[in-house]
Amino acid sequence: MIYKIKIIIRFFYFSLLDCVRSFSGDLALSIAEPLGNGHNVKFLMQDRKGKKWVVKVCRNTGGRVPDICEREKTTFLFARLLGLSVVDTFILPSDCFSKLIPADGDFIKNKVVALPYIESKNIKEFVATNNIISRSLFSDSNDVANIFAFYDWIGDEDRGTEDFLVRIRDKKVFLIDHGLSGPGQSKLLRSAHPYPENYNADAIIKKCYPGKDSFFDYIFLTIGINVNNLCNPPIIKLIKNIPNFIIRRYSKNSRILDYEHFALELATRKNNIDRDYKKWLEEAKGKVEEMIENKI
Length: 296
Ligand SMILES: Nc1ncnc2c1ncn2[C@@H]1O[C@H](COP(=O)(O)OP(=O)(O)OP(=O)(O)O)[C@@H](O)[C@H]1O
Ligand SMILES: [Mg+2]
Fold this sequence. Notes:
Blueprint: H1 2-21, E1 30-34, E2 41-46, E3 52-57, H2 68-81, E4 90-93, E5 111-116, E6 120-122, H3 123-134, H4 141-154, E7 164-167, E8 173-175, H5 201-206, H6 215-222, H7 235-240, H8 244-253, H9 259-271, H10 273-293
Antiparallel strand pairs: 1-2, 2-3, 3-5, 4-5, 6-7, 7-8
Helix pairs in contact: 8-9
Bound molecules: adenosine-5'-triphosphate (ATP) and magnesium ion.
């Protein structure tokens, strides 16, 4: 009961916050310079107050994830509700960004995603330049357990080392890039990744597209966190207690295309989370043992 009350209080607090705050940047964002790598096209921009923003023009790969922006927003809402460290996420009409939208290609043309810019390195860059400090980024294994449990529940199988930002000033980790998350049509995946056919069993356990540097490898091989320490993610109690009305509200208000199916699936997964997470953890243990044995 206490967890349900906690979640409901947070829900109303954030709803109120979003009402008074909305998008704080001036739509006339200027100084566009390309930013980062990745599948989507991103620009670093500045509003009239000097605040920096990342504007992301998303691909609708083969027309397979038309609600990629909405999924980014929805997963941000759930992650924030559950106390994970995420970056404020807004969907904006693309009118003001028309020059930024590539004329050809599979892009979502009528909207963009905007996020405050974080002075950061992603984990991939961070590891390349400062491997020692990276060990201290996840000194609390509950944080790691919470991240994996959340991604198991919401469904995200695109978790590479570039999808985690480490803020320079305090080494705080932020989870980003959730456009392909949430239940989709695939029976094989828990997410809406546009290429389920490219996933093998390994990639599914690692929750990462084959060939990308996975967060999974970073956690269990690079910094060597013990899988056995991830048995009881504190976030599970919160997920189990998200009232269904909140799941529906977030899915519907963010305009997920098939929000009924999306919300129903998340509500069902919520009830099965103990079983599902345990199953994943067993598979993860097996995979890590195998990788250590084979020194991969
Ligand atoms: N809010 C932000 N602040 C600072 N840098 C950011 C921010 N968002 C993204 N970046 C930079 O852009 C990189 C890629 O971001 P993101 O994963 O969202 O892009 P993407 O094109 O959707 O990636 P993918 O190829 O995985 O789909 C990050 O690793 C980071 O370097
Ligand atoms: Mg990414």
